[in-house]
Amino acid sequence: MMATTTFPRRTLLTALAGAGAAALVGCDPTGGATAPAAAIPDPLLVELAGGLGVLRGAERRTLPHAVATADGRTVYAAAPQGADTAFWRADTATGRTSPRVVLPGRWVPQAVAAHGTAVALTSEQVRVTAGRPVGRDVTPVLIADGGGVRQRLDLRGNFVPEAFTGDLTGLFVLEWLPAAAPDRYRVRVVDLATGAPGPLATRAKTPVPPGAEEEMRGDGRQAVLAPDRRTLYTLYTHQPGHRHTRDLVSGRPGNAHAFVHTLNLVERWAYCVDLPHPFGEGPASGHGMAITPDGRRLYVADVASGGVAEISTEELTVRRTATLATATGAAHVAADGDRLFIGAGTTVRTVDLAGLGQAAQWRVREPVAGLLLNPGGERLHVGQTGAVSWYDPATGRELGRAAVPGLVALHSLAGRA
């Protein structure tokens, strides 16, 4: 998004396996090369019905069970190999891959470090922004890189890996409670030296007091990594009565229906920016988020209410809001330094960031399934039903279209050679 990337929380990114050859990234093909396709002007990573796809020009490549870094340059992939798992790293810009290593047992990649130097794998795929894990008392987690296993953790409780700390000595996780029948969760950090999970710090960098850790029951809609890779922003909705750590400490009641959970990956603190009513009242899928390339402004849109909020990432406050025309369907958002693009249903709107007002809108052929601006800002890629189209963002004129069978969503720009 923005010439920046968003990913359904977590992470990041989900396991996929799809149609097409796998020579570019060295994975086992599940089929032959696809038929000749229209050339896409910018390399893209896309989520397919069964895989993470690399689209470069007219080439179509897929990886099984894969996670990618937010910049789309590094992908870790895994595939069953007998009772074990073949595991490797790929560079999407060059196509080079690391030698395959064998991980004992069956594993799927779950979370990748911001700089692509490590990955956490679990025994089953669980999306941190959708659904909940099955009940369990112990969660096995494997920490690996292109050279193989670094360590194995057997965490007592029900955990889902989310992100690594900046120095790779910790792993942020969602701890689901109660472990055997989960209905809520909290964010914690696992010390990789000891394997012990513990609370995060407050924004003031002080330890969270016992009993003051936030527990969430709502929907984690989307996560966005800051351009400097130090901060992860996650949009949560449907949290009536939710009490942040600051509410629990102060004794305030709290009643946030939607907020942006700000996680500092380097200093290990978290802070929630509350969004004003009616954010969080409508469907979670109708909310979307994007960050400007300089990382200073974060925008949240709720197409059901027409609301748009601008958050200062330095102040961690909502600085401005506006109300646009309402829409239905899943929301997808992209931004550059001057414009915000909001897609829902078959409509794409342009918002002028100077006045936070709608500047234009245009129709596309099928419901929007993702928006990505190319680095120069002269093309807006729009995911649609089984295709990617690209448009002149100034006029809304369609510049080209390429079939992408099985397309679920746009993930990010891929690495450039």
Question: What does this 3D model show about the protein?
Answer:
This protein is mainly beta and 417 residues long. The chain has one helix at residues 245-250; strands spanning 6-7, 40-48, 52-57, 59-63, 66-68, 74-81, 84-91, 101-103, 108-112, 119-122, 138-145, 148-156, 158-164, 170-177, 184-191, 196-198, 219-225, 231-242, 256-264, 270-274, 287-291, 297-302, 307-312, 317-323, 332-335, 339-344, 347-352, 357-363, 371-373, 380-384, 387-391, 398-403, 407-413. Strands 1-17-18-19-20 form a five-stranded antiparallel sheet, with no helix packed on it. Strands 4-3-2-33 form a four-stranded antiparallel sheet, with no helix packed on it. Strands 5-6-7-8 form a four-stranded antiparallel sheet, with no helix packed on it. The chain is globular. The model is unreliable at 1-35 and 242-253 (pLDDT under 50).
Q: What Rg, in angstroms, do the CA atoms define?
A: 20 Å
Q: Please, what is the average pLDDT? A: 86
Helix content: under 10%
Low-confidence stretches: 1-35, 242-253
The total count of helices amounts to 1
Biggest sheet architecture: 5 strands, antiparallel
Number of strands: 33
Q: How large is the share of residues in beta strands? A: over 45%
Given helix and strand content, the structural type is mainly beta
Distance between the termini: 20 Å
Largest beta sheet: what is the strand line-up? 1-17-18-19-20
What is the overall silhouette?
globular
